[in-house]
Amino acid sequence: MRMRRTDLALEARELWQEQTGAVSALPGVEARDSLREGIPVNTVQVLDERGENALGKPRGSYVTLTLEGLARREEGIFPRSVQAVAAELAGLIQDIPQNGLVLVAGLGNRAITPDAVGPKVHQNTLVTRHLVRQMPEHFGSLRPVASVAAEVMGTTGVESGELVRAVCEKLQPACVVAVDALASRSLKRLCKTVQIADTGITPGSGVGNHRMGLTRDTLGVPVIAVGVPTVVDGATLAADLLGTEQLPDLGEGGGLLVTPKDIDSQVNDLAKVIGYGISMALQPGLSVEELDLLLS
Fold this sequence. Notes:
Oligomer: single chain
Number of strands: 9
Distance between the termini: 49 Å
CATH class: Alpha Beta
Order of helices and strands: HEEHEHHEHHHEHHEEHEHEHH
CATH superfamily: HybD-like
Largest sheet: 9 strands, mixed
Structural class: alpha/beta
CATH architecture: 3-Layer(aba) Sandwich
CATH topology: Rossmann fold
């Protein structure tokens, strides 16, 4: 039987509970809820092989922030969202040396809006490697950061994983932060959640188009994955709306992916939040206002 498609560990845990009818703790998995800057945060930790088998996710930490207020343009939501993303990301890179180079890799296809999160985050990330190297007397206090927009193989002829690996071999970063679009099981989480994980990422997995993974094993350095669900699989959505466990046969619509009608503005808003959040996590001495001046 086909499984409902989701890239979110939070949703994978929900699906396990629904399918098993369990209300107790999932073996090999720990989960907790908290608030960061008034924003709901769910943390799922896959501890061992039991958890990996149950959720279909590699062991590690998965942090999901719910940014519902961003779409409603709540007062003060942008700086709070940036600070929340920065704080959660900082917690996952705390073991990276303070002066270690970080490579930010924006994955996806900028020509297809739901898949343009990565390239747009690349545009909203503060890069400093050249400044630190060329003018250390002025910028030596900043962490060196490089960024690349790793487009899809259909437009470059090169897998994004191969491109990022080649850049890593040249620059020798201490860490990679990879940003990509994800798939959700539910409309309510589309463009309203950000998942940060220390397990790396497989580009295209959200739409069933698996490519070379960006992980510690493939790149040789820690890889932090940041993702936003921008699409939901048509059959998965139909099953949720119908309240059934079995995915319906959509016939010719079996490959249908659904995305919000205002996806353009939502992707732009989220890309800015994530880009600023990554920059603040890597440069904790800078404020949101200072980043706005540097990146505008």
